[in-house]
Amino acid sequence: MMDVTPTAEHRWLQRLAGVWTSEANCVMGPDQPAVTMRGRETVRMLGDVWMIGEGTGEMPDGDTGRTVMTLGFDPAKGRFVGSFIGSMMTMMWLYDGALDAAGRVLTLQAEGPDMGTPGRIALYHDIIEMLDDGTRSLTSRMQDADGQWQPVMSAHYRRVG
Fold first, then answer.
1. How far apart are CA 118 and CA 131, in angstroms?
2. Which of 29-38, 70-79, 93-102 has the lowest mean pLDDT?
């Protein structure tokens, strides 16, 4: 057995537990207008140290997408770790991240396919900001081949349970 003593970072993740509704604006590709989608996410803790978020939401084609996000904090690495999968993709995104000094913004980094350049692997950031106990945001961005950060998605969440 490993010593599982929750840290301040684990307590930060515990703040995400609950039921949330969301409204997201997504960029579907270069030179395409943003699409607004609504969803719902149920976030629970696995013990005191792992967060599991299961979401459902509208997709641009009218289908319902399903997602699973896991987040934890690895004290040995001093970093947040996690994953993201969705029914609309075949890739598992692996996260590595850190909180800002104020303890409000968690920036998660992952590598994935460049949406504008087939075959290129790009750096992505998923940025979770706790606005207060009942609202949070998630902003995703991709670093293009020129090193510029391009918006991918922004979502606002409201706690409903």
1. 36
2. 29-38
Distance from chain centroid for Cα 111: 13
Q: How far apart are CA 41 and CA 137, in angstroms?
A: 13
Q: Which residue has the tokens 């207008």?
A: 33
SS3 string, the chain, reads CCCCCCCHHHHHHHCCCEEEEEEEEEECCCCCCEEEEEEEEEEEEECCCEEEEEEEEECCCCCEEEEEEEEEEECCCCEEEEEEEECCCCCCEEEEEEECCCCCEEEEEEEEECCCCCCCEEEEEEEEEEEECCEEEEEEEEECCCCCEEEEEEEEEEECC
pLDDT digits (tens, 9 = 90+) for 9-35: 999 999 999 999 999 998 876 677 888
Q: What is the pTM of this model?
A: 0.93
